[in-house]
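re: that chain from earlier
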Amino acid sequence: MNRTVLRTVEILEIISKHGEISLADLVKITGYPKTSVYDILHALEERAMIYRCTDKVCYGIGFRAYAIGRSYSKNSDLLSNSYQCMKALAEDIGKAVLLGKIDGEKILYIAKCEPKHPVVMTPSIGDEEPIKNTAFAKIAEVFTHHEKKICQLSKEEKNRIRTEKLASYGLDGPGPFYNIASPIYNFETRLSGVVGVFGVKEVGVDYSEELKKVRECAGKISERLGFI
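^ sequence. v structure.
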C-alpha cells in the first residue's frame, strides 16, 4: 500500500485520539520527517479533514472527517440495530452497556449506553484496548478461531461459552469489578460484534438474571441483523 496513504491514516488516527495535537508532537510520535508530516497536515486541512486551532499550533479533527464518521454511524446496521436494545438493558440493570468490535487481541468500542446514574468508569466510544483478562477475551477465543490462547480456557469452559453464548470475568474473583459479554451474529452467521456490561460487584448478589439479560440483548440484536 502507498506509504503516504498509510502515514495519512495514522496521523488522522493520532489527531482523533488526542483531540488536539501539535506538529512537533506528531513528528515525535510518528518518527516521520517534519516536512512529510507538515505536507500531510496541509493537504488534510485543505480538504477540511482537520482544522488549525486558534493558537495556530495544534490541529484537530475537521468537519469533513466528522461527517464521514457520522455517515458510518448512521448507515451501520450493527449500530442502528443495537442502540434500543442496549439502552433498555442499561436502564433495566442500572449499569453501562458497551458494544465492541473485536480486532485480533484488541476491542474497539463503537457504542455505549449508560443508566441515568452510572456508578463505575467505563471505556469511551472510540477507545481501543487489549481484551486480555475480560469477558470479551473469552468471546474472542471461543468465537473468532483465534490462533493464540488469550485466556487459557479449558475445553470444558470453551464448550460452555459456545453453548451458552455468554462469558463473564471477575464474578468469581477477588477484585471489585466484573464484566459480562455475549456475541452478536449477522444474517451470514458471522460474528458482528460483542455486547457487554461493566459493573462493581456487590456482596450477596445473584448475577444469574443479569447474565441472562445480557445474552437476551445480544440475541435480540442478532435477530435484527437477520441471524436465525
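Residues 75-223 form a domain with the Beta-Lactamase fold (CATH 3.30.450.40).
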